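Consider the tokenized backbone below.
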């Protein structure tokens, strides 16, 4: 599996044009969703190489990342005369890059894809690293493939179209990348003031964050080992996210990850000696910006049961990625149920809920 090229754009249209000019292809198709068709496509539509490209529009929202939408993309490619030598350019958030990536992986056994992420979450996580797929049977990302795009073009101009909640959602993955990589990255992520939103500086932080992910994915593209580092915060985070859906009070993925990071830092402290003063620093930062996820001790059994379904688990044991310190990643960690429940207490106590 070859690694994808990642371009942090200074001028998206010219960098995309140069890249397309370097490729041999017959047709180019663009996948958007109802949001990115109106908010983002106009920013690239006058790129000459895109002028004749058919634009497919899928319904926005993760609930549409399903086999019916996928089938419509296959049909559009087929009706549009796509061949093995065609390109599919996915313009959107993680929903579009995941599903478009999987459409590309499967159409005629694989056509080349290009991702242009338009959310912070997709820029620093979903669009990079080759995980593609759809939800199936009520399970998230149940069907999919590791299929890296040829290239990912990241342009922080798109981030100006995002609301604060979505900025925060993506930023949770940047906090994770800081924690799993180095003191330098960690410190710069912790010092960023989300309230003043300096987009130029955010661009630099995004570039560093993506580098962390690229380095890990290059070492372990199919998540046999160290790629599990990217799951830090996600075992408890996914349980918080699923609980929010069950309670019909859905929260954004990254907000759940931020809450999961708080709980998993507590587990890291208990299991691997992660320093408590750094736990407090991160909790302070997350409390400052993120809304509290409200639950009570009657939810603990459901949360624990949700963690037992995590994809990383083996032989029914909940498999955590924890930290001994910033940059000191410990994969395949197990923790007693008692301590896992304490980590839920820790979140609630930290947030006073
Ligand atoms: N989002 C985690 C990964 O790409 O492995």
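A designed sequence for it:
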């Amino acid at each position: 599996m070859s690694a994808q090229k990642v371009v942090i754009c200074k001028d998206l249209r010219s960098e995309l044009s140069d890249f397309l000019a370097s490729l041999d292809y017959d047709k180019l198709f663009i996948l958007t969703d109802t949001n990115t068709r109106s908010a983002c496509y106009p920013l690239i539509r006058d790129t000459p190489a895109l002028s004749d490209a058919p634009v497919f529009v899928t319904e926005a929202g993760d609930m549409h990342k399903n086999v019916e939408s996928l089938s419509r993309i296959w049909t559009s490619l087929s009706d549009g005369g796509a061949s093995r030598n065609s390109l599919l350019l996915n313009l959107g958030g993680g929903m579009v890059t995941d599903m478009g990536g999987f459409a590309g992986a499967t159409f005629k056994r694989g056509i080349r894809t290009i991702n242009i992420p338009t959310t912070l979450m997709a820029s620093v996580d979903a669009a990079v690293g080759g995980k593609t797929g759809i939800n199936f049977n009520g399970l998230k990302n149940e069907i999919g493939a590791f299929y890296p795009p040829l290239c990912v073009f990241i342009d922080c101009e798109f981030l100006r179209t995002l609301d604060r909640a979505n900025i925060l959602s993506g930023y949770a993955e940047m906090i994770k990348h800081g924690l799993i990589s180095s003191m330098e990255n960690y410190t710069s992520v912790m010092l960023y003031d989300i309230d003043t939103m300096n987009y130029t500086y955010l661009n630099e932080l995004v570039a560093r964050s993506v580098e962390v992910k690229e380095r890990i994915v290059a070492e372990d593209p199919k998540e046999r080992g160290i790629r599990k580092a990217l799951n830090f915060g996600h075992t408890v985070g996914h349980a918080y996210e699923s609980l929010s859906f069950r309670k019909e009070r859905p929260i954004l993925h990254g907000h759940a990850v931020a809450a999961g990071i708080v709980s998993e830092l507590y587990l890291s402290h208990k299991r691997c000696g992660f320093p408590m003063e750094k736990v407090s620093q991160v909790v302070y930062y997350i409390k400052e910006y993120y809304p509290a996820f409200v639950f009570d001790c009657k939810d603990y059994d459901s949360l624990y049961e949700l963690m037992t379904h995590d994809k990383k688990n083996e032989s029914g044991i909940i498999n955590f990625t924890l930290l001994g310190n910033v940059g000191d990643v410990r994969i395949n960690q197990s923790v007693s149920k008692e301590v896992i429940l304490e980590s839920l207490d820790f979140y609630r106590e930290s947030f006073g809920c």
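Residues 71 and 281 are 46 Å apart (CA to CA).
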